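Severity: low
Component: inverse-folding endpoint
Summary: output formatting inconsistent between runs
Steps to reproduce: submit the following structure tokens with default settings.
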């Protein structure tokens, strides 16, 4: 693969080359230009929403069962908000509306076959998984409040009268917003429109990502969060403007979900790596500027995390749920550490299906592009540093989450690959910088085949 030609080195200060791009402060855009850009992005978002909505809607209509990946807790969270409770407390039992959702819908895949009749007048929480205790208390309420607001809007428009189905359908908005942010990230690295379009198609067809957009889960925001954090990092490196965007990006990531620490770590370590590579080179900024920016990104994340931990502890009830008791450990065994190594480098679909081969190819295409970047690019090229840091986090990121779980909660659980999907945007953007000529033709063929396979899987 050969690097794609950037869409304008002077128009795009982030366009890549073997020499470091100029880091002089970029001029402020004219007001009219800024408005035109905003309108163009709004148009792209609406186009993406039109494409994403039918895909999500078909899945929701055909798959009423709740995902075994904690959707029972997330569905109950929406019902609690609907009753005027905006934060789920530790140890809190699910509402009757939440219990009824699982009793009527069941799990997918089916792992709990002793559910009571759907038309029961009331439900005993003790007979439900985890004794009916809502496990979503660990997450900040950000995702749930946004999704509830969107679900209520969907219900007001008359598309459905079911709160959970409306919340699931709002996944189309998360999907479109994430893809728009990914588009901006790819363009900021100089990816041409055709290659960027292929990148969007491949990410949109990733089975693991589609599951996150189809079901209720804070992971629905992963592509959006991963793109925004890296956009903030690259924006600062390009313009040298204030660090407010870095602080906001770090805070946003952790206000959505704790495992998003992996993308914050990626952005912060990338800035430190650039400080080492650029020191004493041309017009590169002083090392301390990079260090301060890395600290700003991490600081925003730390403040948001600390705030939520204090709020959660203040509201927490006593005791441990059955799930927490099962996860409680006194120490970590070496085998528990080793089994989590490189858990983020996995095919996106672990179940045999028509999508599986294409998902594997896409996964290897993204990861393989990191190796190509390391082998072919100059160390002064920002893509070299991005590839190095992203590769390291793909390998060691799960270990970071294992350590955080143990230190904060005294627990151990194997890290799910989906916790690393905030890294997908930067992998895709880096890979797309190499798509030109025959390589782009081959990728375009995959970008057509993968979404078609998803449609076949949904409709057949």
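Observed output (run 2 of 3):
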């Amino acid at each position: 693969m050969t690097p794609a030609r950037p869409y304008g080195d002077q128009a795009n200060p982030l366009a890549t080359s073997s020499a470091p791009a100029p880091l002089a402060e970029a001029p402020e855009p004219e007001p009219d230009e800024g408005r035109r850009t905003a309108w163009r992005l709004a148009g792209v978002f609406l186009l993406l929403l039109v494409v994403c909505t039918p895909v999500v809607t078909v899945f929701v209509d055909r798959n009423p069962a709740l995902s075994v990946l904690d959707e029972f807790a997330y569905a109950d969270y929406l019902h609690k908000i609907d009753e005027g409770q905006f934060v789920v407390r530790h140890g809190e039992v699910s509402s009757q509306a939440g219990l009824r959702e699982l009793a009527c819908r069941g799990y997918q895949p089916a792992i709990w076959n002793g559910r009571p009749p759907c038309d029961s007048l009331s439900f005993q929480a003790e007979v439900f998984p985890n004794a009916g205790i809502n496990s979503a208390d660990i997450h900040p309420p950000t995702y749930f409040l946004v999704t509830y607001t969107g679900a209520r809007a969907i219900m007001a428009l008359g598309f459905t009268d079911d709160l959970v189905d409306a919340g699931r359908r709002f996944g189309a908005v998360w999907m479109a917003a994430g893809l728009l942010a990914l588009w901006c990230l790819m363009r900021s690295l100089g990816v041409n429109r055709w290659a960027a379009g292929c990148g969007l198609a491949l990410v949109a067809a990733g089975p693991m990502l589609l599951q996150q957009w189809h079901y209720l889960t804070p992971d629905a925001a992963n592509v959006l969060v991963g793109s925004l954090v890296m956009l903030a990092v690259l924006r600062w490196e390009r313009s040298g403007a204030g660090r407010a965007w870095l602080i906001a990006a770090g805070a946003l990531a952790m206000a959505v979900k704790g495992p998003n620490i992996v993308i914050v770590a990626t952005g912060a370590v990338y800035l430190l790596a650039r400080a080492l590579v650029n020191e004493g080179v041309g017009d590169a900024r002083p090392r301390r500027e990079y260090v301060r920016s890395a600290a700003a990104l991490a600081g925003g994340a730390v403040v948001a995390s600390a705030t939520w931990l204090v709020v959660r502890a203040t509201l927490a009830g006593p005791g441990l749920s059955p799930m927490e008791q099962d996860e409680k450990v006194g120490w970590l065994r070496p085998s528990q550490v080793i089994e989590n190594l490189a858990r983020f480098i996995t095919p996106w679909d672990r179940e045999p299906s028509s999508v599986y081969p294409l998902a594997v190819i896409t996964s290897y295409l993204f990861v393989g592009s990191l190796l190509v970047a390391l082998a072919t690019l100059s160390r002064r090229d920002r893509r070299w540093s991005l590839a190095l840091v992203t590769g390291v986090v793909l390998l060691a990121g799960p270990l970071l989450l294992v350590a955080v779980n143990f230190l904060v909660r005294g627990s151990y659980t194997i890290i799910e690959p989906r916790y690393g999907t905030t890294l997908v945007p930067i992998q895709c953007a880096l890979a797309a910088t190499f798509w030109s000529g025959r390589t782009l033709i081959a990728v375009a063929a995959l970008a057509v085949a993968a979404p078609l396979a998803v449609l076949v899987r949904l409709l057949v």
